Amino acid sequence: MPLMGHLRELRSRLVRAVLAIAVGTIIALVFYDPVLDFLTRPYESIQPLLLERGIDSELVITGVGGALQFQLKISLVVGILLSSPVWLWQMWAFVLPALHRHEKRWALLLTATGAPLFIAGAALAYLILPKAMDVLIGFVPDGVGSLITGAEYFNFIIRMLLVFGVAAEIPLVVVLLNRIGAVSAAQLANARPWIVIGIFVFAAVATPTTDPLTMLFLAVPMTVLYLFSEIIAKLTDRKRRKVAAQTALGDDELSPLDD
Fold this sequence. Notes:
The protein has helices at 3-30, 32-45, 47-52, 66-82, 84-95, 101-137, 150-167, 170-179, 185-190, 192-206, 212-247; strands spanning 57-60, 146-149. It has 259 residues and is mainly α. The chain has one domain (3-247).
């Protein structure tokens, strides 16, 4: 295909992706109330605990157009998530023709593995959101109220979901690096103590809370996933050595001549 053909194909796929996001955003606007209830449920679940400690906390929206801006922002993010199968496929459909057969197989396998890992990490973040907010709001001194704007609350949730979702991709990255020969299982085993320390440092910096419990909720699954990916790398290296031994020529063997 000539260059202009590639550009026209890219334009058409971008248009389809944008249309899919627009449709997803409209759907999110229609179901805005259930989406908002889902997002505010972690905050509402800790309200009785805060009142028992004498903390008057309230979720508010500021500004004349704050409510509209808040609704559009939530709808756009949800629309991007809802339409992700469409625009992700448009990206892959544009790139896949340039890949070889084995590259296509690995690309599809990595995509099929990465999506569930990210969703699992985001789901874990949603489960610990009440604990994280309880800790942070708990620093409010006695006699002082706590007003949380909708924008701050939404940004906090998005950050938590993204951090946990990206952290869950550790085994995918390690296996990919091992597959392309960048690192071996022996190197991963030797670097294990430093990698575990780095995981805990990352968890301490990435989580917006200051309590060790939330850090452990992120660091422990990341460590387990890393150890699991190390096992996969070891099995891959063992298979690679076995194949290399089978294809290696002995001293008394002749290599086949090309026709």
